[in-house]
Amino acid sequence: MEHRNISIADQIFEKLEKDILIGEYSRGEILTESKLSENLGVSRTPIREALRRLEQEHIIEMSSKGIVVVGISKEDIDMIYEMRVRIEGLAARSAVENASEEDIKELRDILSLQEFYTHKEEADNIKNADSDFHKKIYSMSKSVTLRDALTDLHKKVIKFRRASVSNHSRAKNALDEHMSIYNAIAERNADLAESLIVKHVENARNRLKESNN
Amino acid sequence: MEHRNISIADQIFEKLEKDILIGEYSRGEILTESKLSENLGVSRTPIREALRRLEQEHIIEMSSKGIVVVGISKEDIDMIYEMRVRIEGLAARSAVENASEEDIKELRDILSLQEFYTHKEEADNIKNADSDFHKKIYSMSKSVTLRDALTDLHKKVIKFRRASVSNHSRAKNALDEHMSIYNAIAERNADLAESLIVKHVENARNRLKESNN
DNA sequence: TTCTGTGTTAATGTATACAATTATACTTGT
DNA sequence: ACAAGTATAATTGTATACATTAACACAGAA
């Protein structure tokens, strides 16, 4: 193993982040360190460290009453897609320019998984493979700044994405678009990859709007 | 006062963030909690909370040896400007659509300050007023997501910006561009504001490259 | 020499005690 | 009844002790 063990604080962070982003806690809800500590069976120290990270992500806020859940609203979603439309093409272009052959092979593997789950119509697995595809492209850009910014934007949408992939034809369309994007990247065609991914993000936004209205 | 008192942990966070972003610590340098604790005269608890936030901002990384300073490299700068070019126009447009008259008045005040300091050629004050101008537009967009993303990008450039504003003609150009952008926003001309700020960010990137080569 | 194992050291990770602040409920005076 | 003040409780903020883990140096055998 090359990375450090996952600490309790890390686990708490991941759990809370996930719970907040999927809407487990409602917007404006107030949490307290003591209760989290009691419920999760750990001391306040790792809880607080997780909270500081969530605070830095702006999905919670501190007040004297306790921790206020901010989460993600529908209005946020619109802006998130506006932003992704504008910078995700940059990631695709950068991926074409910087990805290793190994990277491209891994991207293909992710795509095969998505294909498999789309046929089996397993919504959660489709959603994860879909996310992995985008995240892989982000990291293939070899820019930590770009990857982090896009990863942050991407994960904030998860609450609204499940309905979108549950519809088979929508899931199939997304898969086809991923396939085209993959081909463009594998052929090292930066212009095409960029334009395809921009179109894909726009389509994803529309599919998401259809399914959440 | 409407916000909570600034805790020691918050102060430590701000200090460390600033020190890292201005290049006080060199890339790859290893810090330890104990030494920070000793040097800053506080216990490890607030230190650790500050570190978790810095980690979340990806300007430090944890390893078993200690805290590794990541900071910002020249290559990061290029990508940061690429990203700003693509999304800062969104902020200007959104600001035009959502800003209150009070907001616009405040923006004007910031601009006046920048004008004052530019005449007096006080580099640090120019730099701060310049930052404030952009940050005000970010917050005028009324989108927390957009504001946070742009603020993160903006503050990561500070190490490289000082030289840029030290040259009077470059500082004057930046001021003129800000003036035009302000006018477009005050006239509620979204298209113009967007195109002007995009051009301004591109110019700022060029000015920065000139001054750092 | 070089590799391996082991003891030591130094670092992070966690729990807990206590301090300080703030909200809340209650009481008391008008 | 209502306002103000006060005591109480609950919450976050910090320090410290201890646990755990990983790096390092060194010794000894191959």
Q: What would your notes on this structure say?
A:
- Two copies of one chain form a homodimer.
- Chain A has 213 residues and is mostly helical.
- Chain A has two domains: 8-69, Orthogonal Bundle (Arc Repressor Mutant, subunit A), CATH 1.10.10; 74-211, Four Helix Bundle (Hemerythrin (Met), subunit A), CATH 1.20.120.
- Chain A is built from ten helices and three strands, in the order αβααββααααααα.
- Chain A has helices spanning 8-21, 33-40, 44-56, 74-98, 101-120, 123-140, 144-155, 158-166, 168-186, 190-211, and strands spanning 30-31, 60-63, 66-69.
- Chain A has a three-stranded antiparallel β-sheet.
- In chain A, helix 4 (74-98) runs antiparallel to helix 10 and helix 8 (158-166) packs across helix 10.
- The longest helix of chain A is centred in the middle third of the chain and has 25 residues, at 74-98.
- The radius of gyration of chain A is 18 Å and the shape is globular.
- The termini of chain A are far apart.
- The mean pLDDT of chain A is 93.
- The structure holds a DNA duplex (30 and 30 nucleotides).
What is the topological layout?
The structure is a homodimer of 213-residue chains.
Chain A: H1 8-21, E1 30-31, H2 33-40, H3 44-56, E2 60-63, E3 66-69, H4 74-98, H5 101-120, H6 123-140, H7 144-155, H8 158-166, H9 168-186, H10 190-211
Antiparallel strand pairs in A: 1-3, 2-3
Chain A binds a DNA duplex (30 and 30 nucleotides) through residues 4-5, 7-9, 32-34, 42-46, 48-49, 62, 64-66.
